[in-house]
């Protein structure tokens, strides 16, 4: 309760007020036994798995959710001198350079990092620990395309064809990480000189832009359970390759096949990280928690809680997940240095091209 009250008060006073919400400098014994995790809203873990960590480590975990990934990173930067917590989870490769350039994390090599694939380790100084990966991709409503005897799009290039006019909804890359991933994917696909022309064509073809994933997926998209209830009329949405299994698993009556599909030629690989915050009050507890995030127990628990894939070699993935939401075979990727150099300018250019 204390946390919620504090955050609510801080929001009223402005972001910087959050720094006053921590405990006073100089840890009490109780503080030394609490690890505070700051995360985006999608953080989830099975109660039994978290309880097992708390029992084995002797630390209690307190979770503070701070909106989407972009909001969480920006808030952490504003409060870095007196951080809200000890560990930040949910900074992804589209935002990583912003976090590192602002000195958000201190280095720590987690126990078990040797079992994490080299392709996920984007920071040689180990200021962040890779935790999961997933693919941002266009999803399609199978029923719509069946009814209209139309082949679903499979590539970025398909989306600008006349038969898909007024069908796609995406998120604003300035406000939502799936939208940013889709923009970066198009830049990776069409290059520095080609992506702007591509977006001009998408705009001419009736792409709709909304602020966040929830609105796009649960309100505008005709293929999701939420979108059907809300009367969504867009059969194409920028979401994740792992969205179809969620539609199956959460359905009241389980369907034989997923009602949505993935256009596998429209995917951008997203890697999520956690890091030990600079000036954390409980660095020892934070390190134990980072070790936990790359443990097999947590990694195998993660897919059906956060709908992402594990980064630890040999971690088992549930059958439903591999059946209905396999990762894209050839997703677009981009070097962190390239994202760092061009991201902000691309978002600015995109805004003037698409929204004005």
Q: Count the DSSP helices.
A: 16
**N/C terminus separation:** 43 Å
Q: What is the H/E string? A: HHEHEHEHEEHEHHEHHEHEHHHEHH
The residue-averaged pLDDT reads 89
Proportion of residues in β-strands: 15-25%
What overall geometry do the principal axes of the alpha carbons give? globular
Low-confidence stretches: 1-26
According to DSSP, the number of beta strands is: 10
Largest sheet geometry:
10 strands, mixed
Percent in helix: 25-40%
Question: Over all CA atoms, what is the radius of gyration?
Answer: 21 Å
Can you characterise this structure?
With 356 residues, the protein is of the alpha/beta class. It is built from 16 helices and 10 strands. Helix content is 40%, strand content 18%. Strand 1 (34-39), helix 3 (47-57) and strand 2 (60-65) form a beta-alpha-beta unit. It starts with a helix and ends with a helix. The model is unreliable at 1-26 (pLDDT under 50).
Brief digest:
This protein has 356 residues and is an alpha/beta fold. The chain has helices at 2-13, 29-32, 47-57, 69-78, 96-101, 142-147, 177-190, 195-204, 213-220, 225-230, 243-249, 283-293, 296-301, 303-306, 319-324, 336-355; strands spanning 34-39, 60-65, 87-92, 105-106, 129-141, 168-171, 208-210, 236-240, 260-277, 309-310.
């Amino acid at each position: 309760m204390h946390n919620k009250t504090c955050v609510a008060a801080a929001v009223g006073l402005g972001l910087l007020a959050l720094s006053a919400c921590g405990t006073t400098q100089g840890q009490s014994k109780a503080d030394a036994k609490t690890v505070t995790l700051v995360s985006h809203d999608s953080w989830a873990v099975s109660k039994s798995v978290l309880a097992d960590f708390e029992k084995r480590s002797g630390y209690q975990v307190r979770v503070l959710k701070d909106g989407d990934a972009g909001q969480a990173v920006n808030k952490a930067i504003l409060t870095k001198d007196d951080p809200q917590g000890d560990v930040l989870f949910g900074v992804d490769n589209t935002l990583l350079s912003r976090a590192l350039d602002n000195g958000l994390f201190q280095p720590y090599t987690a126990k078990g990092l040797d079992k994490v694939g080299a392709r996920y380790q984007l920071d040689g100084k180990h200021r962040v620990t890779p935790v999961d990966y997933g693919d941002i991709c266009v999803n399609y409503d199978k029923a719509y395309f069946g009814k209209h005897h139309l082949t679903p799009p499979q590539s970025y290039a398909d989306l600008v064809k006349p038969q898909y006019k007024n069908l796609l909804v995406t998120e604003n890359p300035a406000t939502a990480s799936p939208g940013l991933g889709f923009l970066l994917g198009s830049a990776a696909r069409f290059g520095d000189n080609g992506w702007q022309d591509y977006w001009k064509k998408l705009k001419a073809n009736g792409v709709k832009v909304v602020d966040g994933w929830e609105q796009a997926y649960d309100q505008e998209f005709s293929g999701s359970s939420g979108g059907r209830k809300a009367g969504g009329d867009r059969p194409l949405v920028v979401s994740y390759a792992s969205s179809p299994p969620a539609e199956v698993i959460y359905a009241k009556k389980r369907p034989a096949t997923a009602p949505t599909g993935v256009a596998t030629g429209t995917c951008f690989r997203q890697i999520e990280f956690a890091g030990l915050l600079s000036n954390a009050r409980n660095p020892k507890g934070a390190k134990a928690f980072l070790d936990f995030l790359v443990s097999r127990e947590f990694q195998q628990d993660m897919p059906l809680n956060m709908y992402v894939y594990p980064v630890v070699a040999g971690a088992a993935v549930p059958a439903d997940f591999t059946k209905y939401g396999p990762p894209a075979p050839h997703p677009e990727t981009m070097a962190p240095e390239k994202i760092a150099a061009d991201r902000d300018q691309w978002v600015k250019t995109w805004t003037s091209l698409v929204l004005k």
